[in-house]
Fold these 2 entries.
Entry 1:
Amino acid sequence: MTKYLTIYTTAELICLISAVVCLLNAKALQWRLLIPFLLITCLIEIGAIPLKSVYKANPIPSNSSAWMYNILLLLQMGVFTFMFYNLIGKYLAGKFLIVTGFSVLLLLYIYELFTNVSGIFNYNATTYAAMSVVFVVYSLYYYYVLLKNEEYAELKYMSEFWWVTGTLFFFFGTTAVNLFYTQLSKTYPADKLYLVYISDVLIVILYGCWSYAFICKRWITSNK
């Protein structure tokens, strides 16, 4: 049982519980949609754990969990894009960013899926890297719009701000690790565990900010 309770799965489960408690009665569809998204994410993360042992014993593509993460990748593209569309899509530049970004990601996903030798059994790493960059750009544009807005906003209670903050930290950190992976790997060639620690910190930041965002959303909803 303990092998299923990793930092990743524990953070995701806590965030899922927070989402169910706080977002079940949310009026906005984009927030309620995060509940099934987090549920599927948890199921995939937990379901992929036993496959790691199978793949280690017989490392063939069909024994890997890559196909599960390719499904999750497509869901991430859709859910995050829908969320950002509701945050910045009302602005002309934001709408252009969203439409262009999603179109590029979808085309890249399809291209990579059909050009990989093992198809869906080989993870679309290039699509994920591109998606990380796109979501960082979306997040920065949201901050730009927020700064340009003359209306007063109390950030500590602003659910959208904390959702975007968690997303930005996670995908910016992921992008940085991907870009400098070779250099980071050479730092301690005999021990790459510190790279795992970086990923653990990023996932805790992501789901910690999201959980707080859900709490803010529930507080705002219940007081309206």
Entry 2:
Amino acid sequence: MKRKTIFYLLILGIVAAIIYPTYAIVGNLMWEEYNPITTDISSLGADGAPNQNILNPIIYAYHACMLVFLISYIVYVYKTDKRKVIKIGAILLLIMQIISSVGYKLFPLDGQKTVMSFQNTMHIVVTVCVVFTSIAALFLISIGYIKDGMKFGKAMLVFAILFTIFGLSNPIGMANNLDILGLTERMTIHTLHIAISLLSIYSVKESKGMIKWGY
């Protein structure tokens, strides 16, 4: 993969980070009964949810952009000989996205969310895998950049910590019967996407300099 190609594909991380909140906002606006504070984003793609003909293309575009970005980022970190922990973190991010793209498609929430059916159970399993692989990936990537003496690593570490805190707030809120799942889930997911966009911006900036100087 040529450097210029990698440069342009790395921009897709920013695009993906914009598409997902667009999906959530459009779904919210088109569903009058939907409450973003109490209702999780997964409900927008649940079996029988309204406006799937409009929302599905948006979420498919998001998954495609994320997958291409993460594959490009892995190529980028290997070509630039980044630290091993960054490489492992990048691979974990790709694994996370594959689990998300395939898992949520195979196991969307069914119409009866309160019933712990096989489909709903698997949806939760997918979510747990996504959260923990994301946590591990963010911490590994941030540690790698910190070891290289880059301030960017500290910024990524902040978002890794925030993502962990917000991710834990979801089951804690549910265990204490706090009807704020939609809010805590949004805090978790949007924190991840801010981190992804920062990773994309930093990589684009660094790869642009490498192309300019012929590295």
